[in-house]
Design brief:
The structure is a homopentamer. Chain A is mainly beta. The first copy, chain A, is 12% helix and 36% strand. Chain A is built from 2 helices and 6 strands; from the N terminus they run βββββαβα. In chain A, a hairpin with a 5-residue loop joins strand 3 and strand 4. The two termini of chain A are 18 Å apart. Chains D and E meet through strand 5, helix 1 and strand 6 of D and strand 2, strand 3 and strand 4 of E.
């Protein structure tokens, strides 16, 4: 799993029906690269979360045919975000 | 899922039969790297879209044996593309 | 899917039996990184092709247990290879 | 599989139920990039381990529907960590 | 599939039982990044090999539930390793 920070909700009106009404969030890794994740938990902007990729993202989003390759599975209670924290590792 | 911008249609006459007559599009990430995605929605050049990878791309393209590892699942209604947008994150 | 150019045939006499007699080709992305792909089409050196990865590469190579993570699925009719083409995107 | 060093336990109280009570650890590759792995073995801080990704991470964590894309599968008895070791490769 | 050179055997006494007694090898890509692969063939140090990733690594290592995401599938008979070879591509 990877660690991401929630940026904001993604609005995509034209979509395949399999996406259903799940919430899609833009999330960002510490190195700045953005992805889009399915949110089955209910995160808010700024939250640090862990998200699962690969085929595990499908079941985590609800069922084995859900079209997700990145699904949030938990909200992190505490995570150091400063560069000092990164160096101290 | 990742965010891409549609570049253009890819023409590949010699192909395996499992690809059927699905539209293949060249798509580009913000960092410039290109991929080829199956388009079940009907996107046009310049659209910003989200596409799913991993094994979820197969079902998203139609069925569990379709040979896709990247399938467009939605067209983004709004997405900041400028560097300023990137910095503001 | 990713875009690759065919370099040459890979010879690997000692191999697991599941690889059968499929042709293996060294392919190269525009950024220079090399991979090895199964070729069910019949490509020749210099061809630009699209290849599928992830679990979809197995079925594309013939059946669900074929040990491939990269299988060529089509030969591109036209692809700009120059830097100018890249900038024009 | 990739080689990681254990950093610390990750606390994520709000989580999807499928994660059960498995231990989640922050792990770091030699190049510094962090991931979160499921630990079915019982590692301690500083241990060098191997972890499996892709769909194999699910079964390694217990069963085919467990939402993991990175699961620790072994603790390395010996691993060179210095730059000299890296150069000697 | 990717091309790797065999470095050495990895010793991991504490491991999950699903790993069985398969040989685990540290392998290195040309760009220097290391991974750990299951070796069902019997490679020796210095060999250049091809290894399969993704879910195909499981069957290649023996069966659909084997916890591998990287399995060696063939030993390359000839591979240019010098920078000249790389430039000549």
């Amino acid at each position: 799993m990877k660690i991401f920070q929630i940026e904001n909700t993604l609005v995509a009106t034209a979509r395949i029906t399999q996406l259903e009404n799940h919430r899609l969030l833009v999330v960002r890794e510490k190195n700045g690269s953005r992805s889009v994740a399915v949110d089955p938990i209910g995160c808010k902007e700024g939250d640090w979360v862990i998200a699962v990729g690969s085929s595990a993202a499908k079941d985590a989003a609800g069922h084995a045919k859900y079209p997700s390759d990145l699904t949030i599975v938990g909200i992190i209670d505490y995570w150091e975000t400063g560069e000092a924290g990164e160096a101290a590792g």
